[in-house]
């Protein structure tokens, strides 16, 4: 089972959240938004400038910075 | 008539769930907007009646969780405990839950369902959910949540009567709640807390539970003070005793979402058979390159609308103001009172109202962008670029708005969650070239910049200078942002997590109510300040009125009386009257101030007249034109711009050199590009930063910067020509 960082997924790829390694504060914010281990997450696209990125979780879209995305580990769905 | 029973309800929900639409539909125009004391979070309270109950509805700011992480969420959390100043503890909650996004929305809803306050769950966007193939079993959901659930359509408002019925029912059932438990793992700890620290049972389960979860947060602090604990040590001990290292916050999320998932599984059916056209459009316009093109097109449209659609209305207001001024002059004797009415009141009110068309158009666009879900995209697109300047993606709209007027621009900075980025945006906003600078630019450029054409007549030097001034403003804003980014302490927590809301058709009625509400705030904030200041400036320019001046000009008028030709006589009388007015101004307090301050501005090439006009324009920069008009004795400046331009061209120093030379004029233009001559902006910075510190810093900084820049411009241009 490979583990990848969310920001290394390609547009359109999905994965299940494995672990979130961000600061407590960001972890709290993300957990109330549904970022919990096992939840499916899809990388939709990145902004023209490459950062931030758009992801989809629980059916809604969210923009987050690469700085945050690279702290989210996922197991890609192939 | 018997007195109605008062009842307090609070409306709460995730951002952009149709919560404010719900609020507007329930209360209509019976609403008041203010700030919560000490914070710049908007407090909206409305009223409506159900049978014999007068219901006060508080619209709480959008939030995702009861553990507050922003000032907005703190207000929502405080409401739960009844800790908000001048808001009664709610007797019931109405929770807006987006039907298209049930799981995440139920997170906050289930947190509230653990309190002893009764809750009505309103499933908003009911029609949108249906369209995308999502059905929700209302009865089952109501059963599982143990509370009333009513559906509500997004833009028709269908479902309002069911909601009112549900509220009525809630009242008749004595407002009792049947609390749920979505985090049973914490129960033992709560019980232990209760037994050891709160033996008299003064606290409810939810108060203790939220305090345990909210480590170092508001709920914890409030228990500390309620129970007179010296520190949070006892709470920490309980946390250690019952739980391992992982934060309770994450544990709560996990437990809650587990239960929510079980509920949603039973009530929700998703059959996304086909992609809706909204999805197709979203996928198209959210692509990086197309998104940028669309963004630029939207900006161009907003600019076009604000600057060209508003012109006829602005001209109308201008004509109305001068007509009513003339009318008053025709029916009243020339007394101080008449002058106060025409030169003080009408001029003051007019200078505010004239910007109203632009502001309304601007607000219209912002509300449409907000309610349609596009605003979050602008932040997404611009985030990286703005971050370089210490700003946020969310600074874009406030800064764009500031090209019309800095007041609504600064008001719009509330959407920026990070305090530092918000402050930087507030202080950069006044540099954007607002509409009040345009008349000043137009006058000076029209008079002193040669009408030269380049590139076969395609480019005009006058236009080029105007464009340069716009860029100068932007440059000033960026420069300021960079300085502040360097010198302000770094953001304590900087993250950019922004929901990209699904595109939606906004509700028209709700948008109109919002527009009305914001226009009223603008008129109140900007209006009262500018109005009062206009009267002050009028008084400074009118008094004192030494009798010698009158006597001197009476003699001249007597001399003219001998002139035979009636036409010639009137012309001379008008001329004398205007010269008298100018003489009065010279001896007025404003004129004296101009004379005593003139040495300071001498290096910029200003004489006392320009200095006095500058002082007159300190409260509102556009007043400088009217002030110049009076000083140069041309009567009503607004109707005779070319006359004023001629007068300026023929203004000389005592030694015969012209005052308005090219270096001086360019310096003056640069000065007006940078200076903060606008009390309305100062007042709004005061309101939005909650202290006098930043408005004072902003004024001092911008005034020094404008002086320096004008001086440098003056010297450089003098060297070149």
Automatic annotation (TrEMBL), chain A:
Any one Pfam family match given in the protein's UniProt record, by short name: FeoA
SMART domains linked to this entry: FeoA
TM spans (from-to): none
Keywords: Iron
Residues of the Ferrous iron transporter FeoA-like domain: 4-76
Annotated GO MF terms: transition metal ion binding
InterPro entries (UniProt xref): Fe-transptr_FeoA-like, FeoA, FeoA_core_dom, Transcriptional_repressor_C
Identification of the protein by name: Ferrous iron transporter FeoA-like domain-containing protein
Organism listed in the record: marine metagenome
Phylogenetic classification of the source organism: unclassified sequences, metagenomes, ecological metagenomes
